[in-house]
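We give this protein:

***
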Amino acid sequence: MIRFGIMRGIKIFLILFLVYIVALLLKLPNSESFLLYSLMGFILGAASVIYSYSEWRFSKQIVIHFLIMVVTILPLLLIWQIYFTGHIHFTKVLASFLKVGFIFIIITVILKKMGKMG
């Protein structure tokens, strides 16, 4: 299962990394953002297998997924903000991260209740 998640993450990474290369070749402004997206895509793709563990309760899957996002995606966002702005607004980044995370949790719960997930 872990290997499947890593392979899923690699596929997403490669697609977005190719977009990054094309953006660099075309000298598009902020093309470096696609590098961030490719790294995030890898993490999200790899972490998505958490929802395949049917022996885990749905609430446990959500909590573990969220913790993985806190340990991986949040630091990426903070590093990226320093890279582009030269400074960091931890509270702003954290607030945005939590808002988006909360919205995704609500959407996930709704989809699960509608039978659209696992």
In short: The chain has a mean pLDDT of 89.
